[in-house]
Structure formats: structure tokens, C-alpha cells
């Protein structure tokens, strides 16, 4: 059974990007949408931190509707803040900076694999998701259609875990950074972070959902202000592009197909009609996250996560004020101009 939407409201599909601790921005966005209460949800596609947010939203809604979802999201991210290593350090002046121990660990991953650094495959995130989410209930009674993306480590193929496939392993596979964690083995197959194949996958919302409104919550910047020159900066930018390339390709393809469908006129098939009727919306975090380093994705201190949550709430409220009335009627995102510029 999926979420029911009252006749006076509209249903949104959600596409939630990954980005480690930056996913707390999406926490804030979802919290504001839930507080506003005008929209229900049908399908949610998520990768990495986006997948965590998707499952928290579904789990909480299953237990207590919108308020239950807000509580579950808060519990998860507060749990993330508590699950990090406790270090004896001076008071943090800049909460966006990883603690010394985390910096040291990130440096070590350049020369040693997680199989060497963490042979026992200890993962505090596993303890957190197993404690907080009831995967058995979600498999049978999720209120939303969930699409959790992971990447098959030996082929690069996208693996979508849907409602019947939900498990702690499936969720951890979506967030498995291969430099930090062992590959997640599911039914004998190894999986890495879903961002290599889709960040997030948008086509399932187009293909498997009835709602024609898709809201993308984007954490990666669409544009970078400067070209990197230092070795570390170049490596960081290359990693950022690797995590967004699949999403950008998918969006460019959808934009091109939509443009072709619009040019074909009304005498066309069901695919063209569906492309024309799909309405895209966007909440993006470039102004908040664009100036942060990749290392800040590993920062799990409470002050930083709350700062991002509050920024997400502010952005979502602004979007609601400017575009909420468009849902169900028209797109608030120009797909061609954003992803297929001339």
C-alpha cells in the first residue's frame, strides 16, 4: 500500500542526491515540506545520503505520518552526529573542518585500502540503520515507492533496490565509498556507492510512478566558479565529477527527449505525451555547499549538520513560497535551459 493523498493536495516524486554529511541539507528540505503539509509523496529515488533520507522518511511515515517522518529524519541525523569518533580536541572553531583523526584517516586512504585499514569491516553506520529502521515492515508496507541506487562494483551497472529488496545491506551498498568501506555483498554480488551509476536515478520516477511532478533535491553544484590548479584540488574536482556524471547524462537525455517530444506536436505516441506532461522542480544547495571542500562531507558534528538542516529548511520554504502553486499544473524548472544549454 502506498501513501494516499487527499483530493485537495498533490503528490510529488522526490529525487534525492547523495553527498555524505551534506545530506543534512536534504533533511532540512524534507522537514520543511512535511511541516508545510501541502504535498504527499508517491515515489522516492535516493542515492547514498539521499537513500538514507528516503528510508528515514518512509519508515517514519509508516509509523506516524508526516510528524513521524520528521521525527525519524531527526533521529537518524542526530544518530549520525553521535556515531562519529569522539576525539579530545580543542573547541571546534570551524565545524565544517574534519577533526584531526578524520583528516588523518582520509589521508591514509590514498595509500591503503579499507581491507587493510579496517580488516574487520567495522561500520558505525550499519549499527545506526539497523537500530533505527524496520526493514521487514518497509518491505511489506512502505508508504512510498522506493528506488535505492547502488553500483555493481564489477560491471559499473546500476542496481536499483526497490521496496521488496529493502535491507540494511541494500541501504549501506548505496552509501559504500570504496576507499572507506568494504564492498557490500548481496546475494554474492559486490556493490559500491550508487553515485557512480546514478546520483540519483530519475527514470524510475518517470517510468513507475503516476505522479507527473518530480522534485530534485540537488547537493552537487551545477557550476564551479574556478578551475582547480593544485594537485589536491584537481583530484577533488575529478571525484566530484565522477559522482555527478551519471545524473547529468540522464538529465541531458531527458531534456533532449522532452525537446524532441515538444517539437513533434500532438500527433505522437504515449512516450512523447508522458515526456511533455512531466513537470520538473528543483531545490539546489549550490549557494550553501558550493564553497565547501569534499572533506566536509565526512564532518558529522552536530553543529555542522544543524547548520545544513537549517539551510535546507530555508531553501525549501523559499521554494514553497515561489513555486508550490505550480505543482500539479506546470514545471518550475526549465529542464532544457538547466541541463541542455545552447
Overview of the structural elements:
By secondary structure, this protein is an alpha/beta fold. The chain has 13 helices and 8 strands. It has helices at 24-36, 49-83, 100-108, 114-117, 124-132, 135-141, 168-174, 203-208, 231-263, 270-277, 286-289, 302-323, 335-339; strands at 10-16, 39-47, 145-152, 158-161, 184-186, 189-193, 213-218, 279-284. Strands 1, 2, 3, 4, 5, 6, 7 and 8 form an 8-stranded mixed β-sheet that branches. A hairpin with a 2-residue loop joins β5 and β6 (189-193). α5 crosses α7 (168-174). The longest helix has 35 residues, at 49-83. The termini are far apart. The active site is at residues 48, 193. Keywords: Hydrolase, Lipid degradation, Lipid metabolism. A motif (GXSXG) lies at residues 46-50. A motif (GXGXXG) lies at residues 18-23. Pfam families: Patatin (PF01734).
Amino acid at each position: 500500500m502506498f501513501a494516499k493523498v487527499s483530493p485537495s493536495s498533490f503528490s510529488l516524486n522526490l529525487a534525492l542526491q547523495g553527498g555524505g554529511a551534506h545530506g543534512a541539507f536534504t533533511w532540512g528540505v524534507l522537514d520543511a515540506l512535511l511541516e508545510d503539509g501541502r504535498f504527499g509523496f508517491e515515489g522516492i529515488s535516493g542515492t547514498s545520503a539521499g537513500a538514507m533520507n528516503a528510508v528515514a522518511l518512509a519508515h517514519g511515515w509508516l509509523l506516524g505520518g508526516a510528524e513521524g517522518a520528521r521525527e525519524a529524519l531527526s533521529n537518524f541525523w542526530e544518530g549520525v552526529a553521535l556515531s562519529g569518533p569522539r576525539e579530545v580536541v580543542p573547541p571546534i572553531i570551524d565545524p565544517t573542518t574534519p577533526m584531526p583523526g578524520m583528516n588523518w584517516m582520509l589521508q591514509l586512504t590514498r595509500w591503503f585500502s579499507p581491507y587493510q585499514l579496517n580488516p574487520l569491516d567495522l561500520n558505525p553506520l550499519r549499527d545506526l540503520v539497523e537500530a533505527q529502521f524496520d526493514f521487514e515492515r518497509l518491505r511489506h508496507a512502505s508508504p512510498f515507492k522506493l528506488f535505492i541506487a547502488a553500483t555493481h562494483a564489477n560491471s559499473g551497472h546500476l542496481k536499483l533496490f526497490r521496496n521488496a529488496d529493502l535491507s540494511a545491506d541494500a541501504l549501506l551498498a548505496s552509501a559504500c565509498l570504496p576507499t572507506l568501506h568494504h564492498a557490500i555483498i548481496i546475494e554474492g554480488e559486490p556493490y559500491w556507492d550508487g553515485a557512480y551509476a546514478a546520483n540519483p536515478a530519475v527514470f524510475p520516477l518517470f517510468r513507475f510512478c503516476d505522479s507527473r511532478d518530480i522534485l530534485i533535491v540537488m547537493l552537487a553544484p551545477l557550476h564551479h566558479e574556478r578551475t582547480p590548479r593544485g594537485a589536491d584540488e584537481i583530484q577533488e574536482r575529478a571525484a566530484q565529477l565522477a559522482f555527478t556524471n551519471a545524473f547529468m547524462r540522464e538529465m541531458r537525455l531527458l531534456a533532449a527527449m522532452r525537446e524532441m517530444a515538444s517539437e513533434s506536436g500532438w500527433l505522437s505516441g504515449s512516450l512523447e505525451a508522458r515526456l511533455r506532461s512531466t513537470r520538473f522542480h528543483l531545490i539546489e544547495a549550490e549557494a550553501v555547499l558550493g564553497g565547501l571542500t569534499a572533506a566536509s562531507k565526512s564532518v558529522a558534528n552536530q553543529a555542522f549538520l544543524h547548520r545544513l538542516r537549517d539551510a535546507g529548511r530555508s531553501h525549501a520554504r523559499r521554494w514553497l513560497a515561489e513555486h508550490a502553486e505550480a505543482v500539479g499544473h506546470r514545471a518550475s524548472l526549465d529542464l532544457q535551459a538547466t541541463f541542455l544549454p545552447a
